[in-house]
Amino acid sequence: MISKIAEYCHKWHISEHWKRMKFNINAMDYYIFVPFLLLSVIGIIMVYSASSNVSTQIGGTPTGYLIKQSMFVVVSIVIILICLAGNNQFVRKAKFLGIFFFALFGALILLKAFGHSVNGSAGWIPIGPLHVQPAEVAKVYIILRMSQFLASREDRIINGEKSRTHVQVFSIFVMLFLVFIQPDLGGTVINLAIMFAILFGSGVNWRGATLLTSAGLLFGWISLKILSFVFKDGTSIYQIQRITAYSNPFKYANGIGQQLVNSYYALSNGGIFGVGLGNSIQKTGYLPEPNTDFIMAIIAEELGLIGVLFILFLLLTIIVRAFQLGIRSNDTYDTLICYGVGTYMLVQAYFNVGGVIGLLPITGVTFPFISYGGSSMLTLALCIGMILVISAKQKTQKTRRIRY
Amino acid sequence: MNKLNNRNKQKKRRENRSRYGQFLLLLCLGVFLCMVLRFTYVSVFKNVGGYNLSEMAKSLYTQSNVISAKRGTIYDANGQPLAEDTNVYTMYAILNKKQVGLDNKPMYITDKEKAAKAISSVLSISYKQALKDLNPSTNAFQVEFGSAGTNISLTQKQKLDSYHISGLNFLQQPSRLYPNGVFASHIIGYASANSNSSDSKVSLTGQMGIEKVYNELLTGKNGYKTTQLNNAGVEVDNGESVNKPAKNGDDVYTTLDYRLQSLLETEMTSVYNQVHPKTMNAVLMNAKTGDILAATQRPTFNATTKQGLSSIWRNTLIQDSYEPGSTMKIFTVASSINSGHYNGNATYHSGKYLVDGKVVPDWNTNGWGNITYNKGFALSSNVAMAHLEQQMGAKTWRNYMNRFQFFTSTNLGFPGEETGSVQFNYPIEQANTAFGQGIQVNAMQMMRALTSIANGGTMLQPRLVTKIVDPKTKKVIKSYPKKVVGHPITANTAKQVIQHMEDVVYKSYGIGGAYKIPGYKIAAKTGTAQVSDGKSGYESGDDSYLYSVAGIAPANNPKYILYITMKQPHLTGTKTASQLMAEIFNPVMRLALEENVNAESENSLKVPSITGKSTSEAKAALKDAGLKYAIIGDGDKVLDQSIDANEKVSKNRMVIVQTNGSKTMANLKGWSRYDVATYCRMAGIDAELDGDGFAYKQSVKPGESLDGGTKVTIKFK
After folding, report:
1. DSSP states of A349-373
2. CA-based diameter of chain A, in Å?
3. Dihedrals φ, ψ of B396, to 5°?
4. Do the beta carbons of residue B77 and residue B255 sit within 8 Å?
5. Is B569:B580 a contact under the CB 8 Å cutoff?
6. What distance in Å separates the CA atoms of residue A19 and residue B263, rounded to the nearest whole number?
7. Looking at the DSSP assignment, which residues form a beta bridge with residue B538?
């Protein structure tokens, strides 16, 4: 085992990178790293608070989720450190992206063929203690693949040569189709959003891109309103039931609207200052999934509006910083990575919170860094690692520029 | 030029990227603003779309604080519960192998053979069937076990739990438990869960029998507790809290005797399964008090599983009127004696007798020549009765029918009583009533009339409920004392009638010889009535009779009356109707008489409390107490005992002890029918009991393993 690790270290030139580590840590972007740490710690505490009741109900120990989430955070920090040591070079390699693609594709097919559904939504593949969610991993893949592809083909695009972008986009569509039929509508939409943000951010006419993005958002909003109106009396289709539940939760308070209504109750209980850590009533069985999809409702109940605003502020800091790094960067790849990561966290947070506060139908999406879940935590860690590297790079370039 | 162009393009693209990034940043701020505003709005105003969230949440938490009143328990005469509130369980087994707990502990069935073995040893399902259920043809997530897997009792669940089978789960639901299954079912009735539309609370409502008649008292009143939860979900006492405790339902104490009723049910089932009569009734009464000690009917149903409920809803003891046939002769003779017209030693010509040109036949139409009236009664001669009726006159006879209170309600409290009628216009009709044709009565009316014979002329009100008690204060809310309802005949007449009934059993020519019980004097009268076809005539054919027997014992000082009717059995020729009824009459009457003897002698032995103790401790405790016992199962923990702790019993009673672990057949040789029936019920096996007395032969050898599908035949002599 140890010899194997040593072998890998050798392969990845890790020993060389350690030398550069010191330098990179000096250039650590605390606008990203500190909010990340704070969110992770709040996440651990709130997962524990929200889950202690649930985990005993399903036959585990009250600290079951606490221990696992803590482990995920530790592994996340290790991933971030490895990223900092790696300078984002490894994840650009064609061979890596190729293997990544086939592994992900295979996993999605495997899941469709043999996977079992959890809560009517997409499932996961158990690997050791981790339940790998391919839909979650796909987000990173899309960021990496699209950024790498568009950055490396930029010259061809400028020269008017064939860039074969449509082939790349098509392959991602095929993959997202597999996510969609899991079925995981939320995951599909988030993946699509990431892909389009990178495509539109790659250098095409910004007016057109902005217009298209706005049109897309408007279209989504109008479709949602139309669907809510058409199916206001309910339907048997599971996905559309969620829209009905979103548009009129109180009418179906004992059925499909139960989650949203109980989420509202949690917010109402919490008020501005919250009922205090550990004192949620809603987590005791009224609100399902208190440690994943509805953790923000439980936080609103226990820590109040104040707690929620603090968490949103921390996340906003990271996202704004990601976009800012992207805007500032001269490197196409770095810019696209930053846009991808920023969009990822933005859409993910909006879908989760939107479901909790009734702005969107409930899609079973987790809140970044806070919700329980290994796949999401580790995926996000990789994203944080990458933008930290980009930030460090910009800092050193800046110092060099000043020095010369 | 080209290069410059490219650089410009590159610059342009960079600008595009930055601009789009700025747009994304703006979008991001907008989205966060949206979330913040909405969060703030809901958290601060606690109102969405006109719905007051804090009010609704409060009512959500308050609503779950309704305190359900416990429905009262129905007890037998000795305090044994016959109907009580409980939770029942429905079992299902998870088969999906992906169902694992947090610590990767399997939460599905890992060993199907082991599971099937455990299930079949506890529930009434065979190992084969259980294994089949666990291996469904389709790829099922979970499976259930049909009716065997529903209405599982707590004891059964605990037994299954003791096997520690992963993946075997139970759903709990409130229910009314009738611990003895088929047990005076139409009399006790049943209560079923009805959900109240106003508060969607499930409550039990009596639908039949005592459960229905005493529903209001049994139900009690729900309490409620509106605790004001503070924001932290902790109760606060700000004066607004209202705490109104539930008033649990009152307990009903019946006159039924658990042991006698159990045995009666077993024997009735056995006969019913042999000849499948249309209906059967049986009532055992304490002659001195009018208490109904055991009463049942066939067909009947299992009050817990509701199995059989659809086949008959009527309580045939009072809701069926029928022509009683020759058991009516008891009252003809009693009337004749009491009115001073009886001369037992006078003779008449038996066989046939013409009344207004219409024939009154004896069952043996050749007759027995000229015989005395005394002998005529013992031979159940219709001609004798026709003469007696004519001697005392129709008016007197009709008057006595009223004195015996036929055609009036027995006032048991059950609705829908069929009080009967009589055709009494012409002399032939009047003569027919003397031997029980052309007169419709119900079984409980017969019992009431019989009390006057057994009780020295004093007629008693049949009694089923003795008292209603508040379970908390133990205060008696209502009591129903013994009630004398008439004196149709004198004590002397009663004595003479009993002597005539003894002749039916003991005289060589008497036709009730089958009802002899060694060691006791029995007085009885049998009956065979033609069953009216509901129009003008009678049904014909071998199976068109209603057979009955009314017995009183001990004849010298009557304590018990047992009356059995069996309508239209399909007699196979191997046993006569009398023999079949004796299979019920003799063991039940014998047990009653033995109990009586035991009650008069000292019940010196006290049954220890052994449920929940280890098997070895239990054995030692029973040995110390000097009690006979038998153990079901090879487990190390006692789950149940057949006689309640602290009950005082005689030394010939056997305590049957149920343990966990796998069961094997016991050696039943020498056991009484009651003990065998109890053993089979507790072991959960189907038993057919044959003969009367003590067991001498069993179809399943001692030591053979038992499961829910085992059937055993036990012979007695």
Report:
1. HHHHHHHHHTSS----PPPTTTSS-
2. 69
3. -60, -45
4. yes
5. yes
6. 92
7. B532
Q: What is the pTM of this model?
A: 0.57
Select, from the ranges A21-25, A134-138, A373-377, B184-188, the one with the highest average predicted confidence (pLDDT): B184-188
Distance of CA A375 to the CA centre of its chain: 9
The answer to whether B18 contacts A327, with C-beta atoms less than 8 Å apart, is yes
Instruction: Tell me the pLDDT tens digit for each residue of A30-71.
Output: 999 999 999 999 999 999 988 877 666 565 677 888 898 999
The residue type at B194: N
Interface contact flag, B34 A359, Cβ < 8 Å: yes
Contact (CB, 8 A) for A17 and A85: yes
Q: How is residue B28 written in tokens?
A: 């991001």
The nearest CA of chain B is from the CA of A317 a distance in Å of 10
Question: Which among A270, A316, A324 has CB closest to B32?
Answer: A316
Q: How far apart are the first and last CA of chain A?
A: 47
User: Residue B10: how many CB atoms within 10 A of its CB?
Assistant: 15
**Which residue did the predictor score with more confidence, B11 or A183?**
B11
Distance CA A24, CA A18 (A): 10
Lowest mean pLDDT among A114-123, B587-596, B643-652: A114-123
Q: How many domains are contained in chain A?
A: 1
Mutate to test the interface with A, among B43, B65, B99, B231 (most CBs of A within 10 A): B43
β-strand B279-286 against B476-479: which pairing, if any?
A: unpaired
The pLDDT score that the predictor gives to residue A118 is 44
- In which band, very low, low, confident or very high, does the pLDDT at B232 lie, cut at 50, 70 and 90? very low
Q: Is A269 on the interface with B (CB under 8 A)?
A: yes
Domain with A154, as residue range(s), is 2-403
CB contact under 8 A, A339 and B21: yes
Tell me how far CA of residue B496 lies from CA of B420, B500, B592, in angstroms. Answer: 28, 6, 24
* The token pair that represents B93 in the structure block: 């087994």
State the average pLDDT for chain B: 86
Per-residue pLDDT, B62: 62
User: d(Cα B261, Cα B73) in Å, to the nearest integer?
Assistant: 18
Of chain A, the percentage scoring pLDDT greater than 90 comes to 49
Chain A neighbors of B63, CB-CB under 8 A: none
Taking the CA atoms of chain A, what radius of gyration do you get in angstroms?
A: 22
Phi, psi angles (nearest 5°) of residue A131 = -100, 100
Tokens describing residue B626: 């000097």
> Tell me, what DSSP letter sits at residue B471?
T
Chain-chain contact of A326 with B22 (C-beta, under 8 angstroms): no
> Chain B partners of A339 at a C-beta cutoff of 8 Å?
20-21, 24
Q: Which residues contact A77 (CB under 8 A, 6 or more apart)?
A: A381
Q: Looking at beta carbons, which residues of chain B come within 8 Å of A250? A: 48-49, 51
Residue B230 has pLDDT above 50, yes or no: no
Contact A53, A294 (CB under 8 A): no
Residue A396 burial class via C-beta count within 10 angstroms: exposed 0-12, middle 13-18, buried 19 and up? middle
* Contact residues on chain A for B17, CB-CB shorter than 8 A: 201-203, 206, 326-327, 332, 335
Q: Identify the CA nearest to A335 among candidates A401, A402, A386, A400.
A: A386
| CA-based nearest residue to B219, from B413, B67, B68 | B68
DSSP bridge pairs for B528 = B547
